[in-house]
Structures are given as structure tokens and as C-alpha cells.
Amino acid sequence: MKLLMTTVAALVIAASVFASEPDSNKVALKLVQPTKVQLSHQGSPEGLLTVKVYNHKNEMLVNERIHKTASFAKNYDFSQAAPGKYSILVQNAKGEVENMEFEIGATKQKDVYTKMEKISGNKYKLIVNALHQSDLNVAIYENGNLIFQERAEDSKGFSKVYDLVNVRSNSQIEFQVTSASGFSKLISAR
């Protein structure tokens, strides 16, 4: 009986520690297109979030406050922005939560083509073809969290089957393909 009470007490303490963890690991910034960044928050944000966007001269372009009580996602469109480097900073009341730097280049002709198909269960076939040899990157996200990343150096393309064995069946799966030439495409699997 004493062992049972000690175990229950330890579980209660552990649960309260996990419940009081800050929400910083639930905030994600992701480049979803060459000129679009997605801010997502899974869970219940703790108070006010502040989003600031800076250009390469460190001039603040956006200073936005977001007050949400449930999960949300918001896209920031930089298609009308001048080419250059930008940074996004997301802060909560306790300080910095997430930041991201990205570069917007001049509009280029599409030089990479992608196709993804679900084979069965959690198996997906990704086909990537590039017009010119380039470094190609594949990132796989589960519910907005990076779960796998690989790079094919100096490649004109590949075809590969990804078996995502540790992914829950109801998860949102996304494949992001990027190239050194600036191509970026986010493909939603579910």
C-alpha cells in the first residue's frame, strides 16, 4: 500500500511538471512556398504572442500581436516584398519562442517538378525531377513538426519510397522539397 501511494504521488508530481511546461515547443515557423511563411501553434497559447518581421537592414516591417485561446495557423505572404533576406521573430510574454530567417529572390522559372503518391498505409512515393543538377532537400513534417530530413547533392532528381512507420494514422503529413536554386514546394499527404 505504501508503494502504491508513493507511485501515485510521483505520477501526480510528474503530471504537474509536464502540465506547467511552457508552450514554446508548440510554435512552428515553416516556409510553405518561396514567398510564404506559416506560423502555427498547436495547443493553447499562453497569453499574447508577438510576431515581428525584419528586413536585411534590420528595419521592422511587421509588429503584430496575436491573442488566441486555441490552436491556429497563419500565413504571411511576402510575394510583394523586395528581394532580400528577412527574419521573423515570435515571442510570448516570457521572451523568444521561435525565429526564422529566409531569403526572397527574384522570380525564377520553375526548374524542379515533384509528384507524391500514397502507396499504402504510411508508405509514400516521392518523385523529384530537376532540369539542372542541384542540391535537393526533402523534409517530412508530422503535424508541423520535422520528423525526417535528407539531402541529395548535385542531383537531377530521384524517386524514393518513404515508409513512415512511427507516424500516427490521423497525423497531417507534409513533404517539403527545396533546391539550391530557390525552388520550394510543400506537398500535403493527408
Corresponding CATH architecture of the largest domain: Sandwich
Helix content: under 10%
Oligomeric state of this protein = single chain
- Average pLDDT rating: 80
Specify the number of helices: 1
Name the overall outline: flat
Determine the strand fraction and express it as a percent band: over 45%
Total strand segments: 12
Number of domains: 2
Sheet of most strands: 5 strands, antiparallel
Q: Supply Rg.
A: 20 Å
Give the N-terminus to C-terminus distance in angstroms: 48 Å
- The CATH class name of the largest domain reads Mainly Beta
The sequence of SSEs as H and E is HEEEEEEEEEEEE
Within the CATH hierarchy, at the fold level, what is the topology of the largest domain?
Immunoglobulin-like
Helix/strand/pairing category: mainly beta
- Low-pLDDT stretches are 1-25
What report would you give on this structure?
- This protein is mainly β.
- It has two domains: 23-104, Sandwich (Immunoglobulin-like), CATH 2.60.40.3080; 112-188, Sandwich (Immunoglobulin-like), CATH 2.60.40.
- 9% of the residues lie in helices and 58% in strands.
- The protein is built from one helix and twelve strands; from the N terminus they run H-E-E-E-E-E-E-E-E-E-E-E-E.
- The strands form three sheets. Strands 8, 9, 10, 11 and 12 form a five-stranded antiparallel sheet that branches.
- The radius of gyration is 20 Å and the shape is flat.
- The model is unreliable at 1-25 (pLDDT under 50).
- This is DUF4397 domain-containing protein.
- Keywords: Signal.
- Residues 1-19 form the signal peptide.
